[in-house]
Specification:
The complex is a heterotrimer. Chain A contains 9 helices and 10 strands. Chain B is 70% helix and 3% strand. In chain B, the strands form 2 sheets. Chain B has a two-stranded antiparallel sheet. In chain B, helix 3 runs antiparallel to helix 8 and helix 9 runs parallel beside helix 11. Chain B is globular, with a radius of gyration of 19 Å. The N and C termini of chain B lie far apart (49 Å). Chain C starts with 10 loop residues before the first helix and ends with a helix. Chain C has a single domain, classed as ABC transporter involved in vitamin B12 uptake, BtuC, CATH 1.10.3470. By secondary structure, chain C is mainly α. The chains are: A alpha/beta, B mainly alpha, C mainly alpha. Chains B and C meet through helix 4, helix 9 and helix 11 of B and helix 6, helix 11 and helix 13 of C.
């Protein structure tokens, strides 16, 4: 079966510095794949290059057979790709509801506003307040919810649990389970692999701008030695 | 005759009205500057020239096509807005990656060119443009005679200013604009064509300037220099208000116009410079401007 | 504005230093020779006007090129000094050296006041504030009696320099202007290469870093602003004596725009650029004065072209050629 998202020999640069050195990965439709790795190994850059936010990139990226490399940034989202950045990208001058309604709907099958408020009751309560008045966990929920409304079918999630309390992390885990149940494809970057092991089907381990290892969730315990070594956990 | 502070009420009200009229133009123009600056981070020095273009479009469509004031009111913003879009797409957009001062310098060059071309074609002196027949004459308000056209200008500018404010603060499109002001890359990653948004924003700003130009045509004379005379004052208005807030730009425009009008009553020698003096005082007391957020 | 002005200190550049120094010497000698020969091949008045504007642009560049501050109000210093000098020479009968010094002093005081207000904001706001303040000065000049409003101060006497040299005679005025020009440019060069100038450049490259290093950035900026105003005043005062008049043209905002264009066209942040740019613009205006093409259209178009395609200016582009590197331009 051909993968939904395929990345071949991806190289990327920030100005002069060469960050990705030939990344290869593939993601099947409906799969949740997690990228592990220490800081500075290129995890975030991989997501940002796939999305097209990093423009200095070479190689092949296809989503459902469509080439993403030559595409302008505002077209990429129209292929069904949604991106939730590490810093969450909540707009301070917009209310919670305005933040939710900001991304245009790109395909049918997205959640309605009512469905979103049912899944995230906190957001309903605070829909009139400015986006940045939310707590870190609520901002993360808002950042994910915002993409769910658009009908995006593939979600790029950068460290959604970073800096959040365990209760909130559990809640985000539940949201990811819900997404999987809806058939959403997810590429997740995580440092917290205990969290990741609950939601991911498959893992990549990044090292120095390349995918160094790949294994399904079932092999996680067998791989602990390697993970300790490469991740320093 | 009734007096206030030793000034006849009639004269006081007359100058207040003049101040309100000037304030209407300051508000419209500084609003346009603030809208453009918010998203493009460009100070549009050509704003004065676009205001002048608006007035000339009114004059020329009347002379060449026989179209009246009301057509001009719609046509001028469209024509000048389209011209603005063309300039943004073909030239100005190449400068966004650079220091913002280059945008200022480019639009300054554009202003000089436009002004020079119109001076070349039409001479430096002003040409009269008649107010539409429906708005000639005056009404007696009891304490003064209000020329109808002047009343119309005040009302029209107020309505346009509030409409633009509502567009930006209360609509989905406005929310997109505000978001793009904060983080254009993020907005573009949602699938919104931000370069197009920038072009439309510049066109909107230029169109607003042109609209102000048509409104001004029957009050001041239509002359190639009308834009550069007003734009520097509007810069001072913008410095006083701070460009962080749309409402701030509008309110400051009216207030400073009125302050200028009152100065004409009490100390006419200073009426040309009072806005600059206020700017200096505000900078000393509150460097970020009255409504400014950024330091 | 710093994006094209860095000179990378690579080892190769360091090795080329003695050669560059020799190249620089050659350039300076050529420039001095040109200064001496110029009045015999061109109209002295034209050359003097060019030198005045060259000095004006060099003074402006001290602020834009070496401190990174874009002033849109330098006409106030140039034109203000022209009025002060003209008034002192004509009404009070002061000798030229004192009349010019009064112009410089007046411009410095103006610079101190305008600078103190303008440096409270940065970047684009700084530019708009200087523009607004200079416009205020323009209106003041329009209204106060000593400037004679629209007429300006006409037929200003050149006077007798140091009580012995009659500036009206032969090329005396030319030699006076040439010497002042050369000395002033040398002084600007010294300022740029002094420790003070290094700190200005540090502020231009990264203001926050300069603050964190403990420099009182505001005071350095104000210092640079006042010096730039003073040299602009020197240029304006001389111009009043050369042309024998001072008018509103010199304090108008168009003049502030012109000096920006001269600097941009010649090369921001280069020593020779502003003078070259001034030469081109003054020559261009001279040509256009007799044609029916309006000057502002041409200057406006040159402005746009420079900003879009030619941001390093003539000298900046030249410095990047082999000959330029050999001569140690920049």
């Amino acid at each position: 079966m051909t993968p939904l998202l395929e990345v071949r020999d991806l190289n990327a640069w920030y100005g002069e510095s060469h960050v990705l050195h030939g990344v290869n990965m593939h993601v099947q439709k409906g799969e949740t794949v997690c990228i592990l790795g220490r800081n500075g190994m290129g995890k975030t850059t991989t997501l940002r290059s796939i999305m097209g936010i990093v423009r200095q990139r070479k190689g092949t990226i296809t989503l459902g057979g469509r080439d993403l490399i030559a595409m302008p940034l505002h077209r990429t989202a129209r292929t069904g790709l949604g991106f939730v950045p590490e810093e969450r990208g909540i707009f301070a001058t917009l209310s919670v509801e305005e933040n939710l309604l900001l991304p245009p709907v790109i395909a049918q099958g997205g959640m309605t506003l009512d469905e979103i408020y049912r899944l995230f009751p906190n957001l309903l309560e605070r829909r009139r307040s400015p986006g940045t008045k939310l707590s870190g966990g609520e901002q993360q929920m808002l950042a994910i919810a915002r993409i769910l409304r658009t009908g995006a079918t593939t979600l790029l999630l950068d460290e959604p649990t970073e800096g959040l309390a365990p209760v909130i992390i559990d809640a985000i885990g539940e949201v990811l389970q819900e997404l999987r149940a809806r058939g959403m494809t997810v590429v997740l970057v995580e440092q917290n692999f205990r969290f990741a092991s609950r939601v991911a089907d498959r893992f990549y381990v990044m090292d120095h701008g390349q995918m160094a290892h790949e294994f399904p969730v079932g092999e996680l315990s067998a791989r602990m030695g390697m993970l300790h070594e490469t991740l320093g956990v | 005759m009734p007096m206030i502070f030793g000034i006849p009420v009639q004269a006081l009200m007359g100058q207040l009205l003049v101040g309100l009229i000037n304030g209407s133009f300051y508000a419209l123009l500084s609003l346009g500057l603030a809208v453009i600056f918010g998203l493009l981070r460009v100070i549009n020095f050509a704003h004065g020239a676009q205001y002048m273009l608006g007035a000339f479009v009114a004059l020329l469509v009347q002379q060449w096509l026989g179209l009246n004031y009301w057509f001009a009111l719609i046509l001028a913003p469209l024509i000048v807005g389209a011209f603005g879009a063309l300039v943004e797409r073909s030239m100005l957009s190449r400068l966004y990656k650079l220091d913002h001062l280059y945008g200022l310098l480019f639009t300054f060059g554009l202003a000089l060119t436009l002004e020079g071309l119109f001076r070349w074609q039409f001479g430096a002196s002003g040409q009269p443009y008649a107010a539409p027949p429906a708005l000639t004459g005056a009404v007696n308000l009891g304490f003064m005679f209000l020329p109808l056209y002047r009343g119309w200008v005040v009302v029209a500018s107020l309505v346009v200013c509030l409409a633009v404010w509502a567009l930006i603060e209360k609509t989905r499109l406005g929310a997109t604009l505000r978001a793009a002001t904060e983080n254009p890359v993020m907005v573009q990653s949602f699938g919104i064509n931000v370069p197009m948004l920038l072009t439309l924003t510049y066109a909107l700003g230029a169109g607003l300037a042109a609209l102000a130009g048509v409104l001004a045509a029957p009050i001041y004379q239509v002359s190639p220099l009308m834009g550069s005379n007003i734009i520097i004052v509007v810069f001072a208005v913008v410095v006083v208000g701070g460009m962080g807030s749309i409402m701030g730009a509008i309110v400051t425009g009216y207030l400073l116009g009125i302050a200028e009008g009152l100065t004409k009553v009490f100390y006419p020698e200073a009426s040309n410079i009072v806005i600059f003096v206020i700017m200096a005082i505000v900078l000393i007391l509150r460097p970020a401007g009255l409504f400014g957020k950024e330091a | 504005m710093a994006d094209h002005m860095q000179t990378a200190a690579t080892p190769r550049a360091a090795a080329a230093a003695p050669r560059r120094r020799a190249g620089l010497l050659v350039l300076v000698l050529i420039a001095l020779a040109a200064l001496i020969l110029a009045p015999f091949v061109a109209y002295p008045v034209f050359v003097m006007k060019l030198l005045c504007f060259g000095l004006f642009a060099a003074a402006f560049n001290l602020l834009l090129g070496f401190t990174g501050l874009l002033s849109f109000g330098h006409a106030a210093f140039f034109g203000g000094a022209a009025y002060f000098t003209a008034h002192a020479a004509k009404v009070w009968g002061w000798p030229p050296e004192w009349a010019i010094l009064l112009g410089v002093a007046g411009a410095s005081v103006l610079g101190l006041v305008m600078g103190a207000i303008a440096i409270r904001r940065q970047g684009i706001y700084f530019a708009m504030i200087t523009l607004a303040l200079s416009q205020m000065f323009f209106f003041a000049c329009l209204q106060v009696p000593f400037t004679h409003g629209e007429d300006g101060i006409q037929s200003v006497p050149k006077g007798v320099l140091f009580g012995v040299i009659e500036l009206n005679r032969g090329l005396n005025m030319y030699w006076f202007v040439a010497v002042v020009f050369a000395l002033a440019l040398w002084a600007i060069w010294r300022i740029v290469h002094s420790p003070f100038g290094m700190i200005l450049k540090a502020i231009r490259e990264n203001e926050q870093r300069a603050i964190s290093l403990g420099y009182s950035v505001a005071r350095y900026k104000l210092g640079a602003f006042v010096m730039s105003a003073a040299f602009a005043g020197l240029a304006g005062g001389m111009k009043a004596l050369v042309m024998e008049f001072a008018t509103l043209t010199d304090v108008a905002w168009q003049m502030s725009g012109e000096v920006i264009l001269m600097t941009l066209l010649g090369g921001i942040g280069t020593m020779a650029g502003p003078v070259v740019g001034a030469g081109v613009i003054v020559a261009l205006q001279d040509r256009l004065a007799t044609s029916n093409v309006p000057v502002t259209v041409v200057t406006g178009v040159v402005f746009m072209v420079c900003v879009l395609l030619f941001r390093r200016g003539i000298v900046g582009e030249l410095a990047d050629t082999r000959l330029g590197r050999l001569l140690g331009l920049r």
